[in-house]
Structure formats: structure tokens, C-alpha cells
Design brief:
29% helix, Ribosomal Protein L30, Chain: A, 65 residues, globular, alpha+beta, 32% strand
């Protein structure tokens, strides 16, 4: 079983510092209320930790078929 993170953009990136907007672009979050699923690994957790004030995060367990 692989764990994934379900990340939803809750606040607009307009007017944020460039580092945060680059992180959102790297995650594929460009519009408010959009959701992406990414692997739960240290790299993604570090990115999410920097932008916790803009997103909501949910851990999802995925079953291997």
C-alpha cells in the first residue's frame, strides 16, 4: 500500500512571495479549490510545510491492485 497526499488550494496565490507561488506551480496547483494527489515522501512534505497557510492536506491510503 502506498500513501499519498491530497492537497487542495484554499487561498489565492496572488500577492504571495515568489517562493510560495513556485512551490504551488511545482505541485500543479494553479486555481483555488483545485486538488492534486502527490506521493507522500519527504520532498512533498517539505513543500507542503512551507505553504500550509494556503492549502489543506489530507493523507490518503491507496491500495495496490
Amino acid at each position: 500500500m502506498a500513501n499519498r497526499l491530497k492537497i487542495t488550494l484554499k487561498k489565492s496565490p496572488n500577492g504571495r512571495i515568489p517562493k510560495h507561488t513556485r512551490i504551488l506551480d511545482a505541485l500543479g496547483l494553479r486555481k483555488t479549490n483545485r486538488t492534486v494527489c502527490v506521493p507522500d515522501n519527504p520532498q512533498m512534505q517539505g513543500m507542503v510545510r512551507k505553504i500550509t497557510h494556503l492549502v489543506s492536506v489530507e493523507r490518503v491510503e491507496e491500495k495496490d491492485a
